[in-house]
Amino acid sequence: MTLSLLDIAIILAFLATSVIVGYWVSHRAARDTKSYFLGGNVLPWWVLGVSNASGMFDVAGTMLLVYWLFIYGLKSVWIPWMWPVFNQIFLMVYLSGWLRRSGVTTGAEWIKFRFGDNKGAQLSHIIVVVFALVGVISFFTYGFKGIGKFATEFLPWQLSGDPVTNANLYALILMGLTAAYVVKGGMFSVVITEVMQFCLLSIAAIAIGIIAMNKVSPEAVHAAIPAGWDNIFFGWQTGLDWSKLVPAANQKILEDGSSLFGLLFLMLLSKGILVSAAGPAPNYDMQRVLSTRNAREACKMSAVVSVVLNVPRYFMVAGLAILALAFYTGDINKMGAAMDFEKILPDALFKYVPPGLLGITVAGLLAAFMSNFAATVNAAPPYIVNDIYRRFINPNASEKTCVRLSIISSLTIVVIGICIGWFITSINNVVGWITAALWGGYAASNVIKWYWWRFNGYGYFWGMVTGIVSAMLLPFMFPAELQAALHANPDMPALVRDFMTLPTALVCFPVILLVSLVGCFAGTLLTKPEDEEVLKAFYKKTRPWGFWGPILKKVQAEDPSFKPNPDFVRDMFNIAVGIIWQTSLVAMPVYFVIREYERAEIALAIVVVTSLTLFFTWFRHLDNAYPDHEIAKKPEAVPAE
């Protein structure tokens, strides 16, 4: 496969522009660590929302979405709940506001705000740093594999005779280009370049959807799909039979562990609710929340993500999937079991998108990688600088020293992520481990911390330690081969056998969660509660609902005018409406691209109704939830040293 000279010129021009613009704005980051980590809390909420969406519109994830839509059809709308995508709804409704009220810089710094500064809080502080760095490196690995596979399909130079090494070298070069401006520029460089990159990517995404609509007739789509492919709803099983069209797709469904789709859905929903209620993981998503001007804008920023991310992204995903269905199935059948479904996206792009637009699209997807990579890089240094160096090594370090250490920290994390990514083979395996195993270890401690006053630093620490250790060990102690053997055992109850068909990491999730819960409650109940003054300060500033009765009584004894948060029922209603709203935003562009207009109009009607509902029950309520006296004034500009 070779690109035209026009496409190569567009790609090189884009890469050069991204680096130059990112480097040009980097002088804003050199002022102090707040500017480097959070952009000085002066960036508008809608800009941060677009930036956050751009960081999520990554190449590796989009490659997965295309192959999921190709194989599972509209039922694939539910599979991203493994991340879970609806965590943005929890953030939009209340958690972004609660988090931003703290005024901290990192998730680890928030631990001190919640638990104080005793030994348990210090242990919790350390474990959050460890989790954050493990998570950042895991996302590097995920992005490394995705961009390597993508680049080898398009970029014309063979850097190595070995295909795997060739992909890794391309990933190394592209990560180096992005790091050139991100490491120096911090949040300002990340956000400005992400907004530029997202605009380019959205244009390319919608253009691909239109090309697919013009090239593939509804009749051609229906001839290429099995019965039930275009139905978003499902039963206990997928109900999809590819045996007469693409037999390898049936095998892929079995390998994915998704044949019992109803069971998979229930697992994804229950896991997703727990992980979402825990709040954002200490990565770039949390950093965007903490970078907003105030709590009210933090909630608005999270709402923007669902709109600007899903509609253009799924125009591209649907367009590439139906182009592949209509024109590429013959090639897939020739490859048989050797087919790598994760490469449908680059193969479909190359074959069916015309020169010029292909260059724009490839540049846009490279932009998606750069956005995700840039956001991930920028999320790591605060934990190393603020939460390790400043806290334990040099509390009096100057701002200039800390900015320099941030640059060194970014480079170190990049090198570690690349070294691990070099030896990983599958994007899907990395995603499964991150979303099911690693976040299983994160969920218990981080759910309880918001909603129960008695939970203390020791409980948080032991819950996280047991969760992370079990997340790292269980998938290896319970490999897919053992899972398959248990599933084949005729003495196993039917429900257990069905459960064993799920992906290994997802099967491990309940065990990881249970182990972590034991750590949480043992650590909490065997040690003393946190200092009342710390708990009262946290409760008054954050104003969470939940099991805070004893602390509420003490706060009201000091301040009879203090009112508890009355919004639990309202928030739960808005979350339910918001998940329907978000899911309809995903399904609507897919139905439009495959030209099932009646279902597209139903999805659009649901979007309109849920949007109006949220306007009255959520948006108009923000002023009451986060009154003006909580809204900080715009920070003064900080002079450069």
From TrEMBL:
Entries under CDD domains matching the protein: SLC5sbd_u1
Molecular function as annotated in GO: L-proline transmembrane transporter activity; proline:sodium symporter activity
Listed GO biological process terms: proline transport
Pfam families according to UniProt: SSF
Sequence intervals crossing the membrane: 6-25, 45-69, 81-99, 120-144, 164-183, 195-213, 260-281, 302-328, 357-380, 401-424, 430-448, 460-480, 500-526, 572-594, 600-619
Chloroplast in keyword set: no
Signal peptide: none
Ion transport in keyword set: yes
Keywords assigned: Cell membrane, Ion transport, Membrane, Sodium, Sodium transport, Symport, Transmembrane, Transmembrane helix, Transport
Catalytic activity: L-proline(in) + Na(+)(in) = L-proline(out) + Na(+)(out)
Lipid bilayer topology: Multi-pass membrane protein
GO CC field: plasma membrane
Similarity section: Belongs to the sodium:solute symporter (SSF) (TC 2.A.21) family.
UniProt name for this protein: Na+/proline symporter
Organism of this sequence: Rhizomicrobium palustre
Lineage, opening ranks: Bacteria, Pseudomonadati, Pseudomonadota, Alphaproteobacteria, Micropepsales
